[in-house]
Queue: 2 jobs
Job 1
Amino acid sequence: MKFMLLIHGNEQAMMEATKTDAAGMSPEYAAFNQALIKAGAMLAGERLRPTTTAASVRVRNGATEVLDGPYAETREQFGGFYIIEAADFDAAMDWAQQCPAAHFGTIEVRPVVQG
Amino acid sequence: MQFIMLIHHDDAALAKAPPALWGEYAAFNEALAKAGGTPGLRLDHASKGRSVTLRNGTPELLDGPYADTKEQFAGYFMIDLPDIDAAVQWAARCPSAQYGTIEVRPIWPTRGQ
Amino acid sequence: MANSAIASAAHETAELVARSSYGRLLAFLAARTRDVAGAEDALAEAFASALQSWPVDGVPDNPDAWLLTVARRRQTDAIRRRQTRTAGEAHIELMMDELNQAAANADAIADRRLALMFACAHPAIEPGMRAPLILQTILGLTASAIAAAFLIPPATMGQRLVRAKARIKEAGVPFAVPERADLADRLDAVLEAIYAAYAKGWTEIGDSTADRLADEAIWLGRLVVSLLPEEPEAKGMLALMLYTEARRQARRDAEGSYVPLQEQDIARWDLGQIDSAEVLLHAANRGGPTGRYQIEAAIQSAHCARRLGNTSNWPSIVALYDALLHLTQSPVVALNRAAVLAETAGADAALACLDGLAGDRRMADYQPYWAAKGHLAARAGRRADAHAALTLAMGLATDDAVRRYLAQQIRQLQDG
């Protein structure tokens, strides 16, 4: 089964934390990525630029509206994701707990619709 | 520049959408594929989601999605485009923009790219 | 109650002044300093003071002069703060003299809107920002209103406008109407910007903001015609906008679906607007060399004549497109030409013309290209090609009315 791990974290804190790392990836994330790859679970993963770069688009009554910022203003921000292959929901939750961001943010696990 | 389009849907509004929506989606997917975009990925309903956070090493589990919003995060697609103007244009083309909100965000280039 | 009535009257007057004089006052304030942003700030403060004092003291006899006096005070204060006394004093004195004179007699406020428009459409300004700049400086539209019409995030549009204004100042863009020799080329950029604003308002039909944007563009077109009455292309562009505007109501059916020109109910055309366009085009044609907008207006005139008079004039429309293509070498013109060529030479010949555009990368996600290709392929009986092209056109559409129309075309293809 395919799952999406959505990483929610305080992006301000995350930006501060990664400032010192020129390569843009912490050793913890490198290790987590390696573990996913070795297990054959890694399908995709991306890190998003901060919500300050976001724009939201919707069409209402035929008019297209473009708004600054993300869709939802939340305490922690959606900042990246993984698409993984896992046997079941529990296995996906195990991966979520191993994600470095689980220590300072929240990992949401959602099944992907196969099709 | 790689952009992600995050699709936020109001399930109730979507349920009322005419069946023509799926034809529109088929056309949109066609156009997206031709422009080199990734096929859209659709998530199971938000209520099927679970969230986890570690506090002092102890996992705390929550049922449901992380954010309790009127519209729920339902899927995404990615596409390589020259600028945000083009990204907004693609978001406006997405049939879900009629029923929900499409959030456009640039992606960090991955290491080695 | 009385107070709120006065307040709302003052509000209305301020808005009326904003509509009719904003660009004139801004152009006047910015012309000497080339500081558009500074002039905007000064004018904004003047309007804010007006809203405070007019409800109390009454609306002045000459609101323009009142606003200019306040704005001038703000502007000179700001310049004083920035410039050293020695370098700036003489300049400030000169400017204050001029502003004082103008404020004393609002009729003497020189109309520098044309110079401001030429500054906004100067080659030093990025082409895509010329229309937004003109809309903001001449009409006082907000960055977010412009952003909505141009489908750009408001913050991004705001930053771009700030950068463009800084560029006017830093690059020393002149606030002047170009000399005769350069006028045609430079005017073309002004007209192009105004027409771009109109085109934005034209495509977004369901949008009330966009409806207004088309009105604003026509208003700007009239302004340019009144300020440059000798320029045939300005008249040509205004005529072109009026021809298309006359058909606005007829472009949607009762269900809100898109209706192509061929199938429009001519009873829903605004014949008065078509008459105005005819008069303008006639005057333009008398005025001199035929430019792009005059030809485009002539094409619209021919389309209107054909539908109104039930006469077939396709060969002359093709001939006009030939002239336009020769002049512009634009792929969009080539596309439109191919569509009308189908009427005289058949769909296969038209499709052959489109093949010439297939290699143009700009066509890859250009919705009208795929729509035209789909319609022509359907007419030529190439069903599979038609299906593929119409599907792409539908996927690339941002307008729901167009999507519905294309969905119906695809259904007809499958049924027929």
Job 2
Amino acid sequence: MSKVWKKWMALFAALAMAAVMTGCSGSTGSGEQMDAGMQSAQEQKGGEASEARGDDGEESEPAEVIFRFANYGPVLTDLQLVEDAMNEILIPKINCKIRLEAIDGSNYDNQMNLDLSSGTRIDVAKTAGSYNTAIAQNQILDMTELLEEYGQEAKAEVGEKYMQGVMVNGKVYGLPNVNGRGAVMQFGARTDLLKKYDLSLDGFSQQPDWESQSANLRLMEEILQKVADNEPDLIPLVADQVGNVRLDEIIPRTNLGDDLGVVMGGDSMDVVNYYASKQFEECCYLLRDWYQKGFIMKDVATTTESSNSILSGGKGFSVLSNSEIGWDAQLKNNTSYDFTCVKLSLPLVGNVSGMTYSIPVTAADPVASMKVLNELYTNSEIETLLTFGVEDVHYVLTEEGKAAYPEGIDANTSSYHHSNFWAVPNQLIALEMEGTVADYNKTLKENNETADVAKVLGFVFDNSSVQTETAACTAVIDEYKNGLRSGSIDVDKNLPEFLKKLEDAGINTIIEEKQRQLDQWAADNHIQ
Amino acid sequence: MPKTSHKGRRLKWKRMRPLYIMMIPGTLYLIINNYFPMFGIFIAFKKIDYSKGIFASQWTGFDNFRFLFATKDAFVITRNTILYNLVFIVLGTIAGVTVAILLNEVISSVWKKLYQTILLLPQLISMVIVAYIGYAFLNVENGFLNNSVLPLLGLEPVSWYSEPRYWPFILTITHLWKGLGYGSVVYFSAILGIDRELYEAASIDGAKRGQQIRLITLPLLKTTIIIMVLMSVGNIFRSDFGLFYQLPLNSGALYSTTNTIDTYVFRALMQLNNTAMSSAAGVFQSVVGFIVIVIVNGIVRRVDEDSALY
Amino acid sequence: MTGLKRESDSSREVMSTGRKVQQFFINLVLFLLAAAALAPFILLISSSITDEGTLIRNGYSFFPEKISFAAYEYLFASGIKMVRAYGISILVTVVGTVISLGITSTMAYPLSRKDLPGRNAFLFFVFFTMLFNGGLTPSYMMWTRIFHIKNTIFALIIPGLLMSAFNLILMKNYFAANIPGELLEAARVDGAGEFHIFCRIVIPISTPIMATIGLFVALGYWNDWQNGLYYLSNRMDLYSLQNYLNKMMQDIQYLNSGRNEAMMANLQGMTMPSTAIRMALSVMGVIPVMVLYPFFQKYFTKGITIGSVKG
């Protein structure tokens, strides 16, 4: 027995040594960022990237920039074609070459972590995970100076008002993507049924105070009751997400990085536990009531159908969602029914770092990265290529000058679909999509300019000291959120249980830490 | 074994050399594919700073492990993981061996083939699809059980996705249903490997089929069974994520009987996206599995050396 | 085949009433089990040909009210992608399985020899891999930075799937239990080398285990999507069938994940394949295996012949 043990111990020790040694030699490869970048640059046969750096001499080879974005749709098989078309513009203009990499939205964060931890070169990318974590873990570079020198136009596109939202201790690490920020909660209902029962959505108020919102809820209840009484086969209120009717989103609040500790309303600086708020409780009870009255489908927490397919199957009457103008057109597009929509509040922007584009730590040539990033935010030809593909191949122009799929092609059969339009760096300079209202981009832009911003805009929470608590609380929320947000579980029993578990998991530690950082931030930025 | 002379040993080495050469490709693959990446275990003890790279990042001791025990449910998830695994191992083995023996007894070769093919089908359907099928059976409003089966038995409809007490059965049945084909193939091929003459001789001696199974088949299957069980025991702290997450459709009401270590880790890290913490969970599961397997293998070795794994 | 026939002949001679009853019950049990395994599968097929509207209104059904092949038409309309994906899946499965059987059997045989010096250490070396793994990050780092297999077809074949300790141990056990020592001794006396013995004696009598392990490995390759997901970042033309299937499933889950981006994508009409299409894709993933499986089975039953001949 002991002999056997000795033998394998020796063998294992040898293997471990080998592993450690190779591990160490590998460490030099990814140890320092420049080093890693250079290595991968060579491996990608893009060694010229670093040579071209700095001087814009016309004879120098164009620097190659790997641009990675998230794909929220079917597989993009025609990347090469789009890439070539972009390079025809970029090479003469800024002497840079782009290489596109599309990663599935569902796998994006995971893949970025893999690539960044293994030192794979990526030059410009949608930031993985949350902006604050990416900064805390040094995944992305400080681009403040580069932005000053090569990115003034991009900065102007984002606008001073929103640039402050990505500023951390006076430094910028990523640019927020530009799209309609004025999105608010809306209630949308089938136009044909509203007419049939002589119902109107005119009475809804857009005031954010809780009295007005409660009045909205009562109005909604009357409408839903009427439909429930007359259309027994219909689901009066379809949950936008599985297990989430999104009713509680009418509560005015601003998330601070995550929903573990939020501020209520636009002017507050007090971090509180959202789930323990009076408003959340009210919403839960109301939902439970609606669920029991049959306004919400019984399987809401576990259905395998999306809201779009339930609505397009003619099975639902209304839905709540967070949207900008033109939601009715989108619903029509997604479900083929006519919807009448009404906004339930005024826009309040509390956070713009939800989706940012940044320069990863493994970038080979940050200067080239910045030049390309600038084009991605300001060049409408590039933007249109990225959003809709190549003209007459992937899209055609309609009479109104909007982009549409060619005859007989749809998102699933196209080799370059259009579903990413909202996630590109700057949606507002690309072509408009077929079916949008007239002057769509212009209106969104105006709304962005007039939208109110929360006092806390620009505060970025660093959660690295409360990782354990965040993990434990996330798991607790996952247990209760679908039940409570859909009315499918008993509130009397589950809400107190939920809050107790959150406390046990340490939500108060997170809130304290957040408050501390927020106060610090407020003091640093002279905000009262 | 008698002591071999020096010359004999050299001869033996010469004989054995081709055997070692044959093992080179496989050994190399295991070293590259399995051993080399083990250096990653240390990620579990690091606070990753991407600008330094994972090697140069700061050590944090056991910080990344803390979230595994930071929950009041730590007991529940550990209990669930272990109990389900034990039940799966026991019932899975019994079902696999029984079906293999039954298959072997079937005379008609057409049916024998047909059974085998069909039993393997569930293995080929991805867990997500299994979850959809499960939903078709279990959903409250128009699921088969509530619509067709329960009324026949005169029972009230059950709200399956909010009643945790039914799930130990649902999960076990699904696991057995899905794994039966795979498990029985292993045992069936082992039975096919048994020398026919043994049965013929027994038959001449007047042994009935039942006796033949008891006296020949089962004893000869023993090694295979022990090996299969030992290999499952090493994974006692792991669980089939698809089975425990997809099939219950992530219904919060069912957590008391469906939450396992893997689903907890997944849920906890959904937002954090923290590589170090997820590898910490993996290391924890491996270490526990390793300890268990060394103990069990030690016991097996004591009882029956031939059946031990190493 | 002959062995099977011989066995059934001999049993027919002595087939008593008791034996007939026994056969009846054995068949009944297996039949019921098979039916239980088949039922959900039939449901899968029938929901793939159910009209989408009917499916949403009435839910899943064994006997759809209104049949529609729209899902299949749709899949074939995206034509070339599907055909290519099938091709990739088949290529990867065949090549992977052949290589895997090669390196697994050449390693399993020496390990099955009790007289191999250092055998226990090697077995532990093998077994240890079942318990510990470094996780995805280090593997990914190694395969992409050292071996450069990213965005190549090798990425679908090499990482992870080529050899597993589980299969190796099963095969080693089979060899240990089924290769008669006398046969090896006899061959050795005849002066045959170990290579010769392996090729001429071991391989021919190991068809059942080869078929079994081959089946497991092939299933592993056929059902794999992870390698494609992680290692193909701009060569989507190398996506296998399972990659397409998995992508759809992941997208659906993602859309319902409650993350802000996902809610946005849902709102903006990120297309999700209908239930019928998901089911149809899944059926298409299973069918080739159903077609190919009987070929493997042929080798399982061959084991009987060999069993009765060997002495």
